[in-house]
Automatic annotation (TrEMBL):
Protein name per its UniProtKB record: Uncharacterized protein
Superkingdom to which the source organism belongs: Eukaryota
Organism expressing this protein natively: Rhizodiscina lignyota
Length: 376
């Protein structure tokens, strides 16, 4: 279960370690699917390009059991175990780049969830709920990646109204407030940034506020080696992403640039599993187009916010070619701000949205490559 979260986060769960093995012990389809995936992973790390006979045998057994259950009148087609297996099939197809198959599995998964009463029916099963939602956001097909990242159709699982509620506010911020009380910079607000945020769409500001609260708590938690409540972590993930995905603005609107940047930033907190770097192609291209407009715009964006936009794009979704594309812009901002050292840049970035344990290392490498050029 720990692979679901970034390495830098210590996310606490009320579920025991053994509870994660219960479906494997108690369900033959889950068992064979898990053995198939485990064998595929071992084959991958050993450099094998083709699936072994053992992996294929377990995978075939998984499909056989699943087909029998779906055709049976005695076994509910919407049971937790079947949903978990279909979710796993979706994730596996996605990882293999079989996006057409992945989309078919996702549609089947959506039908099952709908028959169960929607995602809210899993309110007492946050681990399963979070897995389902996380997969919607990671399908790199033109339909569902666009859906999950706000570029195209609506997400399949966005109809549950509870996803719009700010879980940070709805839970009274109990754990977050305690952590933020330890943050000496919690009440410090840059006036230029404050005025800029006030000019944005109110709904976008509400998302920003909730995300900002979580970011402060995450910084304190990582610095002090505290744990982050697992259910709260998952609630914030669902709330932030679905509200951002639901918002739409014109491509030349500053609100759209900020929306995409927040999605990119949030993906580093919630949508990157441990040891796996997922590239969100549509989000990357959309953010690239939006940031390109900054070169020709009259938007009154604070310069240190522009620094954050270029940097967060580089550390979150941009590949090396895209990073190189924006390096002249990053260099110009560094020159205009007269920043000469990484510590100065880091201080500016932390005044926006920044989790040091996650973002410092990749950002430092990018910034230090641009600093010498900016000082010429």
């Amino acid at each position: 279960k720990h692979t679901m979260y970034p390495l830098e986060f210590r996310v606490a769960s009320k579920q025991s370690e053994l509870s994660w093995f219960e479906p494997i012990w108690n369900d033959s389809a889950c068992l064979h699917f898990t053995l198939s995936i485990a064998k595929r992973y071992l084959d991958f790390v050993r450099g094998k390009k083709e699936d072994s006979k053992a992996a294929l045998a377990h995978f075939g057994k998984t499909l056989s059991i699943l087909q029998q259950r779906l055709a049976s009148d005695n076994d509910p087609a919407t049971s937790d175990s079947i949903i978990l297996v279909v979710f796993g099939l979706t994730m596996a197809a996605n990882a293999l780049g079989e996006f057409g198959i992945s989309l078919q599995h996702l549609k089947g998964l959506h039908t099952m969830i709908t028959l169960r009463g929607g995602l809210s029916a899993f309110a007492g099963k946050r681990q399963l709920q979070a897995k389902i939602c996380r997969q919607v956001a990671s399908l790199p097909s033109s339909a569902d990646l666009g859906v999950a990242l706000g570029v195209g159709c609506k997400p399949l699982f966005s109809s549950d109204g509870f996803l719009w509620n700010s879980c940070v506010a709805s839970q009274g911020n109990t754990s977050i407030s305690r952590l933020n009380a330890l943050d000496p910079d919690h009440l410090i607000c840059d006036s230029a940034l404050g005025h800029f945020l006030e000019s944005l769409d109110t709904r976008l500001c509400l998302v920003w506020e909730g995300l900002s609260e979580f970011v402060r708590a995450a910084n304190i938690a990582t610095q002090c080696n505290f744990t982050i409540d697992g259910e709260l972590y998952q609630e914030v993930m669902l709330s932030i992403h679905y509200r951002l995905i639901d918002l739409h603005f014109d491509s030349c609107n500053v609100n759209e640039t900020i929306r995409l940047a927040l999605l990119a930033f949030s993906s580093t907190l919630f949508l990157q599993w441990r040891g796996i770097k997922t590239r969100y192609e549509h989000l990357a291209q959309s953010l690239k187009s939006a940031l390109s407009l900054l070169r020709h715009t009259t938007w009154a964006i604070p310069i240190h916010f522009s620094l954050w936009l270029y940097t967060i794009g580089a550390v979150s979704v941009f590949n090396e070619d895209e990073q190189a594309w924006f390096q002249p812009d990053l260099t110009e901002v560094l020159r205009a701000m007269r920043l000469k050292h990484w510590d100065e840049v880091r201080s500016s970035l932390k005044s926006i949205l920044w989790v040091s344990a996650l973002h410092d290392a990749p950002a430092k490498q990018i910034v230090e490559a641009a600093l010498p050029v900016s000082q010429r």
